[in-house]
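Protein modeling request. Please complete all fields; requests missing the sequence field cannot be processed.
Requester role: graduate student
Desired output: 3D structure, token encoding
Chains: 1
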Amino acid sequence: MLVVGLNPAAENILGISDTRARGDSLLRLIGDEPELQDILSRVLASGDEYANEIQLAANESHARQRTVDCRVSALDLPPAALLVEMTDVTRRTLINRENALLIQHGAGRRMVRQLAHEIKNPLGGIRGAAQLLERQLASDDLKEYTQVIISETDRLAALVDTLLGPGGPPNKQAVNIHELLEYVIRIIEAESISSITLSRDYDPGLPQIDLDRDQVIQALLNLVRNAVAALDGQGALTLRTRAVSNFTIGNTRHRVIASIEIEDDGPGIPPELQDSVFYPLVTSRVEGTGLGLPTAQELISRHGGLIEFESKPGRTVFFVRLPLKQTATN
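Delivered output (330 residues):
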């Protein structure tokens, strides 16, 4: 399992030169990836060709985990016994995931709007009936019960309005995204996060973007509050901005976008919830409503953008992707 030679593409994928890699263990270079070890052993034993998709861990040259198509075949060319071919498909995998998020968001939005309308219509009738009944009651004690009905009906109506989300297309104006982040930080600090270490890592080269200030602030506020809640009073919170070139959102390829990252070192999103966190009413917190992430996704989608995430214990990052030139969606 020792490296005999690397071509330039392999040097780039593995983040090591051919000279340094020669004679070293391939498995050690990629962090003892068990799936690749299994594939290599099978090919050596059988002589058959195997192919599979594997994950390469982050290293000094690549800050993030990558997905590669890996094909291994027997090679009768001493001193080499195996030919390992890797194709980086990280971006393709991310695009597929982003499309799944967009489909999930659309399905969730339709489901919630239908459900909300079904709930809201009878609520008006219940409230009106309680008001009419209250006028017929002489006893203040009995009127307390009708007040409970009216109060609870109003509470449910407010919840339904939250489910439906803020209406109307974005009212866009040129804004500095860092100014919006600083505004969100002031709100969060007022809610007491004194024991949380807050870091900023801003890209000063980001231009102003035409955004609906209130809608984007609400989306960012939802995400930052979630991160603070995940830290449960202690840990590190990082707000980061970057310009990302040649980025695809849905079916649209953008020359450059703004990426806003909200990172925390909390316990991470439970694996069983990761495929459904953008559906309404999905939450891992007892006190949570499960509306923060769907609302944030809805508000960002109105700017032609997308929210995606990576999560594992010790590192959860939500990425707000905003095209510098958006097409609004209602």
